[in-house]
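--- STAGE predict ---
source: upstream dedup step, 1 unique chain passed
mode: sequence only
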Amino acid sequence: MTVLPPLTTRDRVIDAVLVVSCGIGQAAALAVAAFATRDGFAALHSGNGLAVSTVMELSVSGVIAALCFLVSRYRAEALGQSYAISLRRALYQQIARLPKSRHEQRRVGALSLRFVGDLSAARLWFGRGLPDVLSASVVLPGAIAILFALNPVLAGVGLVPLGVALLVMGATAWHLGRRHSQLRRRRASIAISMIERIAIAPELDLLGRTDKELRRLDAQGASLRNDALARRGKTSSLQAILQTGVALSGLLMLWLAGRSGIAPASVAASLSVLGLIALPLQELCSAWDHYCAWRVARRKAERLLSEPIVKRRRPRKHKSVIVEVRGTLGREPVAFTAKQGAVTRMRGEHARVLARCISGLDKYEGLDVLYDGQRKTPRIAYIGDDHIGLQGSLRRSATLMCRNRPNDRKVAEVLRRFGLGDLLAAPRGLDQRLSENGNGLSAEHSMRLDLARAVLGEADVVVIASLRWWSGGKRSDLLETLRRQSAATVILVETENAHSLKKNSKVI
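--- STAGE serialize ---
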């Protein structure tokens, strides 16, 4: 089971310490500014000019507070980005190790949301919310202490309305997480639906479904808007309650000062400190919003990271291997052996399932796959119905399996031997650009490219479980070329679909 990345790595601990240190610096600067403000108002009230020391204290404290704020925000963003990088890596590593069958059970695009909304929630919490909490944990106690130092009576009475407002905010904010959960579910539904439909939008339009899809999109958008407004109303109400509490606290301070004859300078300084108390409280409201979003995303990430994985290793054995499969599948006994360096044909209704297990794509309880009597997986090239490729050059596609890319001369030589000379003769040769998953290539070309990739990648085992193999001609020549170019053990899957294709395919 993979767990979430830890927060306490060296770089993130340093960033967190810097954020807290900046908070301490801000609190100290605010303390100096508060007392300097009191001295300044006292001087103005008495008709005297401002002392040079007062002006210097106000200036220096303002500059220090601004610098601390700048450094704090900068390091906070670094903290958030650092955690997002670690989480992104952990999520992709887990997704890559999931069984292929688990991928096929999910809706198209569902996993991609982990790299958009969930990562944004993580970045906002660790880059803004958590640093704001750390800063507030230093600034708030310091500001309250300064307020009591200025005038204990004003502080004790004036903070009562603010305390009541905080209690009301706590009760109001309790269900914000549920709002985020509903909002995320709506967003995910729309995003996944669009990912599914964008690729086939022209075909859907040809079927006359565009108007229906637009109506469905409008209905989903209306539901999303309602959930977004509910969440925004909840967060805005927290800010409104806080501002009301601050206003009532200031009013109560002024009323008390008028009744008790407290010096105007102390009142002015206390009101300024009250405003400084309100700032971190507002940031805490936003931090709670970010935390609720992260909590929802964290549950999804933890669920994904807790799923069972298939451990695939790719050490090269530098020789062909014997492949053995023993056990049961669907209550049927399984016994299969692929001879070392030979071509072994696999038949039966479970042939494709066994081929995926041999390749390491899937893992089924009750099945043991051994390579030379060991469970350690060699380098395996699996050629399925669909060509797998990233957008890029022909060179990149052909060497996708290579740890160290061979030189262009060798790549071109292998491609020619598999009958891809026409591709190399095209403008730009190996530099020509291929689309994702070989879109634009014929089934025969993509099949030959897969075989060349297996040779260049020095695969120990080549598993061919593709209808493309049966749709093309000169299969015996391709197999012979593969045998000459590689000593790998070859497993060729023959299914009922393949036999049917061979029997019924005709050119009319």
